[in-house]
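--- STAGE predict ---
source: upstream dedup step, 1 unique chain passed
mode: sequence only
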Amino acid sequence: MNLILKLILNALAVLLLAKILPGVGVDNYVSALIVAVVLAILNTIVKPLLIILTLPATILTLGLFLLVINAAIILLADYFIAGFSVNGWLWALIFSVLLSVFQSILHSILKKDKN
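--- STAGE serialize ---
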């Protein structure tokens, strides 16, 4: 139940960011839900592999290279999902940072409701 609620909140965040950012587009709510699911899968499987492979660059940049990895994950989701579009690396980077902020806010609200 908690996983489904988090996916729905992530889909709402994706929809909101698609409305705000001109370089990001989502066709409808179903596409946003698919984006949330695909991002969860990519963050679970692909992201740890990329972090391990790019560990020297991540250490050298004091962790800032993780932003590039997040943008790459967003662009991978753009490649796999027909109803989701991101216009380049810069928009993927901005989208990933803002999505992380929105997810933190929404999930902290969710934790407060549990207590």
